[in-house]
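New to this. Please check this record:
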Amino acid sequence: MLTSASPARMLLAVFVLLLPGALCAEARQAAGSIDFPASEITAISTRYAGSPQNWPVVNSLADYNSQTNRFYLTSEDIRLLAEFRNGFENVTESRTLYTSLIDRGARVLAREELEQLESKFDRYRALVNAAEIAQSNTMAARIKTFSAEVDAIVDERRLMSVEARLEERENIVQSRSGLLGRWADADTGDLFRQDDGIRTGEESQARLEFVDGSDITLSASTTAVIRKSSVDRITNRSEVDIELSSGGVLTRLSAAARNQATFNLETPTSSSQVNSSSFWAESRSGEISTFSNYDGIVLVSASNEEVMLSENEGTIVRRGQGPSAPIRLLPAPNTNWSRPDTVIYLNQIELQWAAVSGARRYEIDLARRDTFLGNVRTQATTVPAVTISDIPRGLNYVRIRAFDDNDLRGIDSRTLQVLYVESTSPPPLILDSPFRPDVIYTFERSLEISGTTEAGTTLRLNGEQQRVNRDGRFSAGVHLPGDELSVTINVTNPAGLSRELSRTIRYVDVPRLFDLNWSAPFQNGELRRMPRMLVRGSAYHFMNVEVQLNGQLLRQRTGNNGDWAIQFEPDEAESVTIRFVDRDSGNTISERTYPFTPIR
C-alpha cells in the first residue's frame, strides 16, 4: 500500500480534486471492500469520511493502481473510515455549537476558551490533511468534551458587565475612556463601555464586537463613540447607540440582535435605527452622510423627515435637509469568473469584470477570511480592471463593489477564493548551523549533513538520492577518504523547480597538527627558552600557521604537502601560541599555547 506521503499519490489526489465538474459514480462493491476510479475520490470521501474535504484520509488508506487509475479500499479500511466519520460528525456538531456560542456572547464572555476551541478545530483539520487518523479521532473526542465545557462557561458568565471588545485592529487605532478621557493607543482585547470612543488612522481598521454577536467595522480615518451599550440579562435584550463623527462603519447584526436588540446609529446629519444584518454608513466632513442597506430594514431620520430603506437601497442626508428618497444601489459587478476559486503560482493576480452602468469608481477587497473582517486590504480603481500584488501565501478572498455618482456603496460581488501556491519558487534548502559555512571542518572521517527542505521534494547529495522526512527534515552521511571533499546538495519539488548548495568539507587530524618539532627541549608541557627558536610541523595545504608571542604575530603559509617551519625569538614572553587558520575564510581551526620554563 502506498503511504499518504507518496508524491505520486498526493499529486494525483490534488489533480482529481481540481477537476472541474467531477461527478461521482457508484463505486463497485464486493466482499465488503470497494474499488473506484480516481475521479470519484471526492464522492467516496463524502460517503465514507463525511466530507469531500476529508479526501486525504481516504487517500492514505486506499491502494492505488496507476495502470487502471483506480483506488481500492479493504473492509478494514472501511471500518477505520467509519470510526473516523463518527469523530468527524462530533466535530461538525461542535462547530454548530461554536456558532451558537458566538451568538450568545462567547467572544466577549469566554474569549480565551473560545480561542482554545478554535485552535483545536485548526489542529483537527491539520491532522486530517496529514491523514493522521488515530490522532484526529482523539482530537475529535477532545473537541466534543471541550466544546461542552465552553458552553457551560458562557452560561455561567452571562451576568458579567461587559459591553464591547476590540476584536481586531490594523495599524493606528486609539481609544478614549469616557467623554473627557485622552486618546491613547488601543490594544486588541480592550473593553468599551458607555461614552467610550474609538478612532482609526489612515490606512487603518478596527472591529468592535458586542455581547450579542453583532459587530461594527471602522474603516480608515473614522471616529465613533459608544453612546449607550446595555444588556438586559434576564430578557437578553440589548440596546446599542453608536455616534459616528466621521469616516465609515460597516454594521453587522447577529440573528439574535435583529430579533432582540435595538441598534441606533447617529451621524452629524441623521439618526438611523438598524434592523439589518449588513449596513454601511459614512459621514463626510460632517455635512453629508450616505447609507447603504444590504439586508433587512433601516429607518433613517433627519430634519423631522424619515425614509425606510429596504434591501439593497441607500439614501443621502445633507446637513439641514431630510434624507433623499431611497436610491437603488448599484448591482454587484459581474466578474464572469468561471469558477469561484483559482490557484495562482505568482503572488499577484489580474482581475477584470464587466463595467457597471452608473459606476464612478470601484473598490476591491483582499482578505484572509471569507467574512472580510480584519486584515482587509482595499484598492480603488476607476476602470473595471485591477492588478492585486503581494498576495499572501495560502488561501485569500477577493470581492468587488461599485460606487455611484452619489458615492453610495453598491452590492459586493460574489467572493473569489485565490489560493497562492509558491511552486514557482524553488523549494527551500536550509542546512543546520554547523553546515552553513562554505567550508566545513571535520575531525572525523565520517559525518552527517542535516537540514530542512520542503516536504515531498527529492534530495540528492552528489547525485545520490537521500530520504526526506514528512516534516521536511533530512540527514545524509558523508565519508572523506582524503583530506578534502566537495559536496553538492540538490532539492527538486514536484513542479521540477530546484535549488542547489555546494560545500567543501575538509578533514583535520588534530594530533597531526600538533605533532611539532621544536629546536629547544620540550618536557612536561613546557619549552626551554632559547634566544632563537625554530618550530616545524605538518599541517594541510589550505592552512596558514600563526605563531603569537605577546603582541608579536608571525604567519607562515604551508607548502603543497602541508609542511611548514617558523623561526622566532621569544625574548621575555611567558608562552607561545601555535594557531592553524583556514587560508580562504580566515577561520581559526585549532590552536594551542605552550608555556616557557620560568626564568630563574
The chain is about 20% helix and 40% strand.
